[in-house]
């Protein structure tokens, strides 16, 4: 009798035990081979809440990011490809780290310390996103895998040779991704150089907080009273315009689609928004720059940054010709980018904040993507 009681008590205790809590973790796997025979690795970072960020060494690219909606349903909220081949073929910087200089440099040329430097003109008459083989198209080296109590992540390094893509100086770059227990994806950038060079690094994720469809119903708030207008080739004119009374005023929030097709010369040049917003900042500290709400799912993305500007791009050049994850054809405006950055073409614009990194100095910026839901 006693024996049975012990067995029953034991069985009750075992069956009442709470199932093991999912824990934060990192899964490291192969993502394929580059044609030159180099391996591309993938790191899947997961936190206790089940938020998952996948990063591959090729382009230090964020390939997937699953976050919950207001009912806890997970959805991948970034555009991208399932296979390495997709990234090697026609890839408009989906989730990539962009450098050495994000966005455009007019006519692929600039003068620094009296010397003229010429870069590839890979976007009409201009240089775009670091050139023909920018930082999005190189395989980064894994420098560190991070597993702390409240965060998991990895650091990736890339050494850009002196003269690479026409830029002066050997630039040593480190990008660190951290996924925290409170649903933040932190991106830290660091770079040092041995010769003066322009540097502007960004993360080019295309977000769609509904996971699919047009992004025009997403509601955006931007902490920017000014933006930098552009010419017909999307090079800043050098002016800094107030957003007041224009389609560019997102200060109190509105849907992305509300004014996107307005009869506005600036919007016509971009085919929608493709402009640098000047953040209303008092210091170089981390500040909340943008908040996006997708009303159906209740998913909210906040972008915080230490950088002076943000390129708000509404995926105007997507045209359905690229098939991405889940066989989805990415149509026009099916993703938006909030590329935290220094202003485009700064090396040619004396009134913009300087982007020149000199030997002995450290380029150090941070951007944080915070995910939460509307109640
Ligand atoms: C940036 C540019 C856009 C476009 C995309 C990539 O956002 O400003 O004009 O080049 O990258 O397609």
Overview of the structural elements:
The protein is globular. The mean pLDDT is 95. Helices cover 7% and strands 38% of the residues. The chain has helices spanning 2-16, 84-88, 265-270, and strands spanning 25-33, 39-46, 52-56, 61-68, 74-76, 97-98, 104-105, 109-112, 115-118, 127-128, 141-147, 151-160, 171-180, 184-193, 197-198, 202-203, 219-222, 226-228, 241-242, 254-255, 274-278, 287-293, 299-305, 309-313, 337-341, 356-357, 363-373. Residues 92-93, 103, 128, 234, 274, 311, 313, 317, 337, 339 line the site of alpha-D-galactopyranose.
Could you give the topology of this structure?
Blueprint (H helix, E strand, L loop, with lengths): L1 H15 L8 E9 L5 E8 L5 E5 L4 E8 L5 E3 L7 H5 L8 E2 L5 E2 L3 E4 L2 E4 L8 E2 L12 E7 L3 E10 L10 E10 L3 E10 L3 E2 L3 E2 L15 E4 L3 E3 L12 E2 L11 E2 L9 H6 L3 E5 L8 E7 L5 E7 L3 E5 L23 E5 L14 E2 L5 E11 L2
Antiparallel strand pairs: 1-2, 2-3, 3-4, 4-5, 6-16, 7-10, 8-9, 11-12, 12-13, 13-14, 14-27, 15-26, 17-20, 17-22, 18-19, 18-21, 21-24, 22-23, 23-27, 24-25
The structure holds alpha-D-galactopyranose.
| Radius of gyration from the alpha-carbon trace, in angstroms | 22 Å
N/C terminus separation: 54 Å
Can you give the mean pLDDT?
Answer: 95
- Shape type: globular
State the helix count. Answer: 3
Strand order of the largest sheet: 11-12-13-14-27-23-22-17-20
Q: Please describe the biggest sheet, giving its number of strands, its sense, and whether it closes into a barrel.
A: 9 strands, antiparallel
- Uncertain spans: none
